[in-house]
Amino acid sequence: MSDQPTIAADELERPFLALVSKLVVGEKPCPVRFMYRTVPANLRDTGWRMYSGYEDQDFLADSKNMQPYPTATLIQMDNSLDELLGSKPGTVWERVPGDAWQEVHDFEIPVEEDVSTSVTNDVDTLNPADNQVIK
Got the DSSP string for 75-109? Predict the structure, then answer.
């Protein structure tokens, strides 16, 4: 499996990326066993964060160990993800090997340091080139 997935033209019009552990999409991929949906970081981000369950704190501390990956490709790898990806932000799912997905209610979704959001009704303040508000 290539580390550089292809992106369909229609995916560029809507959010289509999940931030995924390299253990899930690396040379010897492990299945997704834990995932949650948070506030998207940008217009291409779905807000999904996916992990194998084997990541330790040192692994997670290095942002290079997480990479954006198209959700369509992840569904091709594991079609059980398809029905879960429509879940609302704040949703957390986990599964143990050989078992069905279970919704988790006692996990606190971490706040991502590099995500800032703002709301505006003033279209003139938006910069479509980088999806950031001009101040």
Answer: HHH-GGGTTTTTSPTT-EEE--TTS--EE-SSPPP
**103 CB-near residues (< 8 Å, 6+ apart):** 91, 92, 93
Q: Dump pLDDT digits (tens) for 13-61.
A: 568 999 999 999 988 999 999 999 999 988 999 999 999 999 999 999 9
Q: What is the pTM of this model?
A: 0.74
* Helix-strand-coil split of the chain, %, nearest 5: 20, 20, 55
- Beta carbons of 5 and 70 less than 8 angstroms apart: yes
Give the integer Cα–Cα distance in Å for 72 and 126.
29
Q: Which residue has the higher pLDDT, 50 or 117?
A: 50
Burial state string for 96-134 with b = 16 or more CB within 10 A and e = fewer than 16? eeeeeeeeeeeeeeeeeeeeeeeeeeeeeeeeeeeeeee
- Beta pairing, strands 34-37 & 92-94: antiparallel
